Amino acid sequence: MLGGVQTQSFSPVFIGRDAELTRLASALAVAHTGESQAVLIGGEAGVGKTRLTEEFLAAARSAGAVTALGACVEIGAEGLPFAPVSGALRDLYRQLGPELTAAAAGQQAELARLLPELASPDGALREAYDEDGRARLFELTVRLLERLGEDRTVVVVVEDLHWADRSTRELLAYLFRSLQRSRVLIAATYRADDIHRRHPLRPFLAETDRLRRVERLELSRFTRAEVRSQLIAILPDAPDETVVDRVFERSDGNPFFVEELACSLGLGCATGLSDSLRDLLLVRVEALPEDAQRVAKFVAEGGSTVEYRLLAAVTGLCEDDLLDVLRAAVGANILLPTDSGEGYRFRHSLVREAVGDDLLPGERSRINRRYAEAVEADPALVPADERAARLANYWYAAHDTGRALPAALSAAVEARHRHAYAEQFRLLERALELWDDAPADVRAELRPTDYTEAYPPCDCPTDQPLDLVDLLAEITVAARLSGEQERSYTMAKRALRLMERIGSPDPLRAAWFWAQRAYAAESLGRSDGWEELARARELVRGLPPSATHAEVLVRIAGWIMVHKSGAEGTAIAGQAAELAKTSGARDTELHARVTLGLLQSDAGDVDGGIAVVEEVRRQITDWGAPRLISRTYGNLSSALEGAGRSSQAVRISREGQERVAGHVANATHSWLLANEGESLLMQGCFDEAAVKLAAARRAQTVEGSVMCAGVETFQGFLALAVGDTDRAEQHLAFATEGLRYDTQPQHQIPLRGLGLRLAAAQGRYEEARQRLLAAIDTGFPNGTARYAWPLLADGAAAEADGPWPLTGDPARGHVLERIRAAARETARPAPVHKAYALRVEAELARAEGRHEPELWAAAEAAFAAEERPVELAAVRYRHAEALLGRGPDTREAAGLLLALAHDAATALGAKPLAAEVAALAARARLLLDAPAAPAAPAEPADPAGALGLTARERDVLRLVADGRTNRQIAEELFISPKTASVHVSNILAKLAVATRGEAAALAHRLHLFAAAG
């Protein structure tokens, strides 16, 4: 645009930074091997971050990498949504063209939110308020970069991260976490001196510090020797040492200030060394011709970069005059052409800030008004994806509330369609700030259909203006989707108070706000949300059918489903489905029918409930709503698993994963993976289950989330099944923390079951009992039978295996009766639950010291018809134990059962169960690889001898089982405490247990000693 203009770099030689360049080169080398890297480059303004990245990018290109640069745009309180990412992708698109289009194949419409060049001619996008949209957009960005990095190394640099909008920060954090095995390096620069205690970048930096692949570089100021080298490179003659000392002292080693001081010294600037930093930065600007200074002011206020055609429009200069003043500013190294050649920017942001700060308030407003009027007159002056946000900020800075309000609302709509919900929320808050000051005639021209989508469509007249309640509804949802649950709660509360104050006769809208408030209250942990939903229910009672009415009832039915289930929820879900059908709200109707089917299944009509959800699945074969598809498949697979139909559940989970692949967020996909993993675990497919559960866990990006905790719970059950108690303990700890504020029985009951089973496995039977009683106290509502029955069975088994017969426990009878009472009250909607009930009954008999083979035989027959091979093997083991307790006539049958149990446990990898079966067979002198001999042994088996225990060790073990300490054992047996300790260590090793409690429990299970009288 300026043709032959020659610009001069004040530092033609790159000074210092050898260590930093070496670290960047090392990160690039690692990225070349296929392991993604991220580098954050911090330093004060003017310290040389941009110059360092320029040198690094040149070196990366020389090494064969494809490089791209994106800069955060300072405009308003925060930057444009995703501006640096869009800029970098646009840079890659210019270089790679068809290759990038091919890498985005199938997802162009979604990725067009970041790179509009990918949009189809019709510009069709997904629905604006797509709950999964933001996460899906992040995942597709990862996938795009990974595909681009398959054949080359890709280096992306983001500049000025301190100006980044929140959506950009969150996307970068996601990229840092998710890019792993790919040839991609992302570097970002930020001003360290700007990051004050409340700066929004601080949490981002703290989060990325915990990531292994993220490296932090902090650029220090130059030393005196480096300042001297810089001055030698800049000045025509080498400076004397006094000049070096003065410059070093005034600049404090900041390279940019050194350059400015060098200008004062020797490049035609006669002002000498200025007294203030601001004056120093303005030295060369004030030396420009008057028109050039005026243009510099316009550029300073226009944003980080300003397009040439826009600059021509706002300055009013003819093209020749404009080019003359631009040539002067570029020649003086004040302005630089942008890389695209389409606009101009300041050589350094510090100079831009100094020029901007020098503007008078009225002058600033006038310049912003000129920008806004120019863009409105000719929208093509700025990129389409920036237009709305820039107009909103120009009018806001112009202090024209009548134009700023609709501009802010339009920019909020644009942010919503890009899934930049944090920026939408910020813009809507600005609109709320402007609302009262905007002229009434301006507000009267605003229409809800142009600016809002949060509140469902109503029968309002099309000419009804946007009101404050409409705006509050939009803010409520935007706040929720951007993670600002406190603001969402506050806005819903404010709307309800406003409606009450103005006497609004709209109970339907009030009910909608109460439902939103319930969601926020539960998310914040203030309540479980039921009180708010009950208010919503009362408000809609008796109202005519409408989409909003149906949506409120679906929310209420959904809450009942996950918290307490029951006939009330079934009735509400059915009513919601009919209301939605009458109102033509097809999506809401199908969601309601999914909820209805699950509630029916929970209430005992398993086949009927599953059939309802199955019918929805058939109806959405060609449906284009990913959330409905994933919810249908996820809940159908869960309902099938709850009924014990694990094979069908696995099939549905896999089909669902295929249906939603690439269309939902990883978190939603994780739900289907976790369901598949749970069903595989129940079928004893431990290796496959481990793979699926690990994949589900990796797909979760929010540490400590409820979904993460749910996956960790089942990983804990899997670890126990294969004998890894240490790993199970880790999973339990994580799951407990993740579910700290969760109240849903479907999460809490399996968590308690895991804690109970782990405590029993480690011989902590008192803890196991307390966990059991806590679970019984809380209760097992409808829909939780799949988790309640295994917990009751494990609790009864722990009572049978514990040391109570040896130690004597007056509370034991009460505990067993509590188990029986809970079993009587717990639903048995499917055959698998009846099988567990039979096992509970048999375990209770064992806990009371009764050998009841008939009870175990009934449980065995029930489990033989179910897809629970581990449970079947465990029941056969106990059945054999009960038969052996009856006498020698049952040895053959017991031996066969033990052989079957051992074969199954070994094949499945259930190591603890296989070991227990083998130990019982050894005590009974039964072979596991052949049918048992019918003849009884000549002498009773000696279990202690079979374990290799000496007579003294048996004496010590007896006292350990009684709960004695080493000192008490020593006194009883007339040995030293040290000798007692040695005996205890030997016993633990021979019994292959880790603790004294486990040794005592094993002694009881093996009947090594007579019960205490």
Q: If you had to describe this structure to a student in words, what would you say it looks like?
A:
α48 (951-961) crosses α50. The longest helix is centred in the middle third of the chain and has 18 residues, at 507-524. This protein has 51 helices and eight strands. With 1013 residues, it is mainly alpha-helical. It has a five-stranded parallel beta sheet. Strands 6-8-7 form a three-stranded antiparallel beta sheet.
Q: Would you kindly provide a brief summary of this structure?
A:
The protein has 1013 residues and is mainly alpha-helical.
Describe the secondary structure blueprint for this structure:
Elements: H1 18-32, E1 37-43, H2 49-62, E2 66-71, H3 83-96, H4 98-103, H5 108-111, H6 133-148, E3 154-159, H7 166-178, E4 184-191, H8 201-209, E5 214-218, H9 224-234, H10 241-251, H11 255-266, H12 277-286, H13 290-302, E6 306-307, H14 308-315, H15 319-331, E7 335-337, E8 343-346, H16 349-357, H17 361-377, H18 384-397, H19 401-417, H20 421-435, H21 440-445, H22 448-451, H23 468-481, H24 485-501, H25 507-524, H26 530-540, H27 547-563, H28 567-583, H29 586-602, H30 606-619, H31 626-642, H32 646-660, H33 666-682, H34 686-699, H35 706-721, H36 725-738, H37 745-761, H38 765-778, H39 785-801, H40 804-807, H41 812-825, H42 831-847, H43 853-864, H44 869-886, H45 891-908, H46 911-924, H47 943-946, H48 951-961, H49 966-973, H50 977-991, H51 996-1005
Parallel strand pairs: 1-4, 1-5, 2-3, 3-4
Antiparallel strand pairs: 6-8, 7-8
Helix pairs in contact: 1-2, 6-7, 7-8, 9-10, 9-11, 10-11, 11-12, 12-16, 13-15, 13-16, 14-17, 17-18, 18-19, 19-20, 20-23, 23-24, 24-25, 25-26, 25-27, 26-27, 27-28, 27-29, 28-29, 29-30, 29-31, 30-31, 31-32, 31-33, 32-33, 33-34, 33-35, 34-35, 35-36, 35-37, 36-37, 37-38, 37-39, 38-39, 39-41, 39-42, ...
